[in-house]
Amino acid sequence: MTNLSRRDFLKLVRDGFLVLSGALALGGVLRFLDFQPNPAQKTQFDLGSATNYPIGSRTALSEIPALLIHAESGFSALSLVCTHLGCNLGEDESGFACPCHSSHFDAEGKVTHGPAAKPLSPLRIEISEDNRVILHTS
Amino acid sequence: MYFFILHLSSFILFPMPPSFFHHLHPPTIPTAQARWRHTLAAGGTAIFLMLILGVTGILEMFYYAPNPAEAALSVQTITYHVPFGGFIRNLHYWAAQALIVVSAVHFLRVIFTAAYGHPRRFNYLLGLALFVVSIMLDFTGYILRWDVDICWPLTTGTNLLKTIPVIGDFLYRIAVGGNEVCETALLRFYTWHIFGLTILVVILGVWHAFRVRRDGGIAVPPPQLRADVTRIPRDELVRREVLTMFIVSIGLILLSIFVPAPIAAAMSVSIRESVTESVDVRAPWFFLWVQQMLKWGDPFIFGVLIPSIILALLALIPYIFPQPNEAEIGSWFPKSNRLAQIIVAIIGTIIIILTFINR
Amino acid sequence: MRRLLPLFSFLFFLTLLLVWWVDSRQPKPVELIPTLTGQPEYCITCHADLPEISASHPVETFGCVSCHGGERLALDADLAHSTMRGGANPSDLSVAEISCGGSNCHSGSEADDRDHIQRVMTSVQATYAGAIASIRYTFGAQTDLAAHFGIAAVSDDESQTGIKSLDAFNPAIDSNPMLQKFGENCLVCHLHAKPQEGEAFARQTGCAACHSTGEHTMSTAIPYTQCNACHNRGNYDLRTMTFVERTDQPTSRLADYYQPISQFTKCEYTLDCVDCHTRDETMGDGDIHANQASIQYVQCKTCHGTLTELPLTKTLTDPNDIVFRMAFLNPIMDLKLGDTIIVTEQGEPLWNARQLPDGTFEMVGKATKQYFTFRPVMGTACEQNPDQQESNYCHECHAVEK
Q: What is the pLDDT of residue B7?
């Protein structure tokens, strides 16, 4: 091994471990930043007894936000979050309007005009053994 | 990561046009200026510790909540729940404590090698100011824990300001932001810690480093009086600095893995309700000597006046004491500044004794 | 120097690897967000194996911190435990008001008269007022038998007994050495005092003294052994003012009762104390009483009546009657509206004693779940003098040989 290549080898070792150390430190910092300090968001809502929602009723639940529909065929629910960029929708005569970028959805959740492209997402409804309506947002 | 960037800057940025880095690293410097046994690597280490403190401090800010209800809980979140959070907090803590020790060592080196004489008198003052601001940073950072153990040091420390005649109440309002140490104090201390004092340290630190070179580098005798006329190239200086950084980093990391930073139960909203018998009433270690003196009597005399007199005395050393003999500059314990050495040794010994009495 | 840098570069890398390794070995925190507080707590990271405290306090609802205190986020045992209320026992009387109280919990609201904490604090079980008064009277420190002192100071402006407050008894104010010895040795059993060191004095404090019937368990089904922890572990010697621990090893429940002069009928050692003794008697009625005799009133006749009177009963007509709540907490009997249960002369329900259609009674042991039937005295061959109806007269005939 010549003197020069020995020097180069030591340099390579030095810089190699520095790069590896940098990667470890960077990975650590990214993991550090990835933590979510707040408790996970609630994804399950107990809406009370099913008898509170007669057949044919449409109930807007602004705190979720969601629309609970009780039709002949049973319970269903629509998310009232705009599929464009996530603003909460407001109810109007013909359906739901987004205050942020003027997307509009009809009463069934279909887009009547953009910029939103996707219809409102349906949410899962579960009727518990004691006849309570449980809504799942995920 | 800081290390990585620093390393890149020192090796890759070389071809770039002259910068502040080149100001601090001229093509060659006298070998004597870069000897471990001469500098103890204290000044450079202090700057490196400040960089660590900056990076770890910024990381902590991502989770720290500066309001009385959440502060201690967010510290617990960082310590126990954020991945590597406890380690980063420990690193911040130990770097801060090391900074005080290293700054003190740096100061003693400057005194005991007679390095403060003209033209370095002003830079000596800058260094002293940096030391004081660093201690204030350490104290404010300690208060940010906002747990039950900080109650009394916060109360007594800020009440000391009130004892100062004429401007005491004004200083208290500036520091605490209200008449009672409560909600406002935390936000004040937070802002002082991460912004007010930090910006001061950056300005003073850059100025101090700039003046080191402007004043002719680390203090050594003028060329005609030097025993050793050899010089080392910039590469060699950087290599020594990098080696120091490696050693300091490894030491700090090991310390941070095995010795956790202090933490205590969260304070309830009212500071007075939080104080129970189990609470630690001792000042942070760097103020133990002041706390010991406060047991003796008047808080203004022992808590404000005497520390201020000591600081003033130290600040005046380059101005009122005999100038060191030029040939002796940079050698340990020269005869020509015996008086300054003796005074600093006495003050230092008293402070250390007071600290240990109050353990 | 040229070789040092690669070496330290490698060591630096190793220490960073160590940081990752240490991190990977941390136990994974287990989060619990109780619905009552909505604030995450991590106690069950270590305490997953504790039994549920009671069916009324499910951990998913209450979590740990609302009762125990402590640092809910800390994963370091010392820090997490540093602010726990009452150490391991949040129901200690010094902290029970914070841990167990509150108008939604055991302090109750003014209207429903359920401040259990206040009534325990002022009960003779906590104050020891009667004994303090009579001992001080005996040794000449006070001229009457009136209660002036409790173990801790208590007050109740609305006390129906006429005693509005008691001062804390400080034996140091009395010069008599016997009274000082009394202060040292004889207060420690009572709820407001710290238990003394030693096995004979081992008891839990506060609510748990009676209600904690097992490890991390709270119950209203309180077996006699729970009461025995204080009431049956030895005897006091008034001549030396000391407590004499029992030394025997009881083999039967009858023998387990340790008052040498006492007499018992069969039901008294077959049932549990709480089958007869009511809430007011054991926990106090909210008023400050001068002594035990002023609060303890249940006698044999409470259930059995006398030759001339049947026991008092009450037919349940109100679905919100407190007895349904008591039966819910300790479901040993399927109480229904329309059932007739025994009540005491002060109107407290003995809800586990129900009248049968034929006029006899059935009873289920609160702790043992044993089923009994019994009949009233009226119409039997009992020859007892009608104005001698206290239990000690019953014992004359019905006590069992020990």
A: 55
Q: Under an 8 A CB cutoff, do C12 and B254 touch?
A: no
DSSP conformation letters of C105-139: TTT--TTTT--HHHHHHHSHHHH-HHHHHHHHHHT
At C16, which helix (H) or strand (E)? helix C4-24
From first CA to last CA, the distance across chain A in angstroms is: 64
Cβ C60 vs Cβ C35: under 8 Å: yes
Number of Cβ within a 10 Å radius of residue C66 = 19
Identify the weakest region by mean pLDDT among A78-87, B219-228, C339-348. Answer: B219-228
Chain C positions in Cβ-Cβ contact with residue B232 (cut-off 8 Å):
none
CA distance, residue C74 to nearest chain B CA (Å): 6
Residue closest to C113 by CA, chosen among C285, C244, C293, C241:
C285
If you ran DSSP here, which 8-state letter would residue B7 be given? Answer: H
For residue B299 the two structure tokens come to: 């808080």
Chain B residues touching residue A19 (CB < 8 angstroms): 4
Angle at CA C279, nearest 5°, toward C315 and C121?
150
Rounded-to-integer distance, Cα B8 and Cα B1, Å: 11
Any residues with CB less than 8 A from the CB of C139 and at least 6 apart, and which? C174, C176, C178, C179
The token pair that represents C293 in the structure block: 């005799």
Nearest to B123 by CA among B33, B197, B206, B19: B206
Closest CA relative to residue C350, chosen from C400, C395, C398, C300 = C300
Question: Across the interface, do B253 and C16 touch by the CB < 8 Å criterion?
Answer: yes
CATH architecture of the region B38-218+228-281? Up-down Bundle (1.20)
Which chain B residues touch A21 with a CB distance below 8 Å? 3-4
A17 closest CB neighbour out of C13, C19, C31 = C13
Neighbour tally for B330: CB within 10 Å:
22
Question: Which helix H or strand E contains B49, and what residues bound it?
Answer: helix B42-61
Percent of chain B with pLDDT over 70: 90
Q: Could you tell me which residues come within 8 angstroms of residue C167 by beta carbon, excluding any fewer than 6 positions away?
A: C148, C149, C150, C153
Give the tokens for residue B296: 């003796």
| DSSP run (H or E) holding A123 | strand A122-127
Question: What was the pLDDT predicted at A15?
Answer: 86
Positions in chain B short of pLDDT 50: 1, 13
**Residue C158 to residue C163: CA distance in whole angstroms:** 9
Domain A44-136 has CATH 2.102.10.10: yes
**CA Rg value for chain A:** 27
Given B4, B81, B83, which is nearest A18 (Cβ)? B4
Neighboring chain B residues of A32 at a CB cutoff of 8 Å: 59, 62, 82-85, 88
**Closest to B164 in 3D by CA, of B267, B2, B307:** B307
Rg (CA), chain B: 22
CB contact set of C222 (below 8 Å; sequence gap of 6+): C210, C211, C213, C272, C273, C274, C366, C367
What is the bridge-based pairing of β-strands A44-49 and A132-136? antiparallel
Provide DSSP, C352-402.
EEEE-TTS-EEEE-TTT--EEEE--STTS-----TT--SHHHHHHHHPPP-
By the 8 A CB rule, do C314 and C340 touch?
A: yes
Domain boundaries, chain C: 23-84, 116-276, 297-398
Which of B77, B246, B266 has the CB atom closest to C9's CB atom?
A: B246
pLDDT at C261: 67
Residue C151 predicted with pLDDT over 90: no
Instruction: Say if residues B214 and B121 touch (Cβ distance below 8 Å).
Output: no
The residues spanned by each domain of chain B are 38-218+228-281
ipTM entry: 0.86
Query: Which residue does chain A place closest to B79, by CA atoms?
Result: A32
Query: And the tokens for C89?
Result: 């026992």
